[in-house]
Amino acid sequence: MRGKIFHKIALLAISCVLVAGCSSGAGKKVENTKSTLKVVFYDESWFYQQYGDLFTMKNGENIEFQVVSTQGLYSNDEGKSYDEAFDDLIEKEKPDVLMLGSDNFERYINDGKLVELDPYIEKEKYNLEGIYPGLIDMLKEIGGSKLYGLTPSFYGNAVFYNKDLFDKYGVEAPHEGMSWQDILDLARRFPTDGDEKTRVYGYGDNYPLTIDNLISNIANSEGLMNVNTETMKVTVDTDSWKRVFQLAIDTDKAGVVFNPKGDEGFTGGSMEDYYQSQPFLMGRAAITVGYPYMLQNLKEAKERLKDYKSFELGIVSGPIDPADPTSTYNSNLNDIFAINSASPNKDAAWDFIKFVNGEDYARVKSRSGGDLMTRMGFKKEIEGQSLDPFYALKPKMNKRYRNMDKLPDNFMGEYNTILNRELELVKDNKKTLDEALKVIQSEAQTALDKGLKEKEANKGKEGAGTNDTDSGVVVTD
């Protein structure tokens, strides 16, 4: 999502000795052996800052790390997709510990490339209690009832609201378990008069929210997907999608969402400029969906902006999946650590994984950074605000990026062109929504079919192009 900003000690006595040269059996160790543990991660210095230094200080220096960086995989010279380049890197480097996203985590499980963790957990009676409820269930669901990886942190959002504005305009406060319908219904109860630069908005994101982005946000929270990558069929002409489109169109027409005409949002400048571009931070939006880093932004805005007007903040859980109000698709896993089935150092790899997912690590890391720890109870608040709403809903795996490498390179751009053209026709009352959805379905399918034929024709050709795995297309299996 555009504009999204993602923000990336007490030392204890050594309690055990980690070793290398370990056998593949759970729990077996060779004493006093120093070895190298090869770990795949974004960047070497970031790995040590986040994990490596703490592990060494806690467990001694029997393990040396060799970090295999994934930098550069998006812009490889062979025209490979990220997944293809990543697979080649794993095959070449043969790391012991894999850092995976939710998409390739599932793929590596299905390909038999990961070690099941349950035998280690059972043998050592490793404590999984206190981990974000539902997270282990979700990971096991991906693994066919078996656990193949653990993650120490996650991204999750919640519903932030300005209590002062709700009181001023006599609107009842948001409740726990808000859906997008609930959120936007409240937003429509705020006034729409005034200048774009100074008026109050019912809903304001950290960037101008266009109607297509609003549609995407709602659909993602409800688990809706517009392409089935198994059948390669576009699937937007449905009752569920029609309801989402209608909600976004009605909200846009009501003029309650922050989306100034011709305004592309913050494109550069000082931090003060950035804060002033955010309507919720500046007290001009009643409600928004945000991540924990917004709490830090609020603190910094107060400190850095002259004459900043503070307001009372409230946070509740949401957005929910309306089909299952106890759950959310908006909890995204950060680093899923897993053991390469080809590793000769499986026990040492497990010792690393259990540490970074354990209580000691959570206790230390809870004192810094804006990530949500999967180990609950250590980081209870940020800037005086309880983090309970971020843990209140059961996480569900969002299949948004599944099998993206199967899609044609230019599909998302073509899809968005079709989508925005048809949305404008509906907004101008030149087409009904039903008519627009049929056109989007038909033309997007034509574009997809054409792109797939070209992709197949170019397969294996050097420099054929790369997939943009950050394009934001919503896909399904």
From TrEMBL:
Cross-referenced InterPro entries: Bact_solute-bd_prot1, SBP
Entry's transmembrane regions: none
Domain of life: Bacteria
Pfam families: SBP_bac_1
Keywords (A to Z) from UniProt: Coiled coil, Signal, Transport
Keyword flag tRNA processing: no
Main localization category: other
Biased composition, class Basic and acidic residues, residue ranges: 450-462
Residue runs in coiled coils: 416-443
Subcellular location: Cell envelope
Region feature Disordered, mapped onto this chain: 448-477
Residues of the signal peptide: 1-25
Family: Belongs to the bacterial solute-binding protein 1 family.
Protein's name according to its UniProt entry: ABC transporter substrate-binding protein
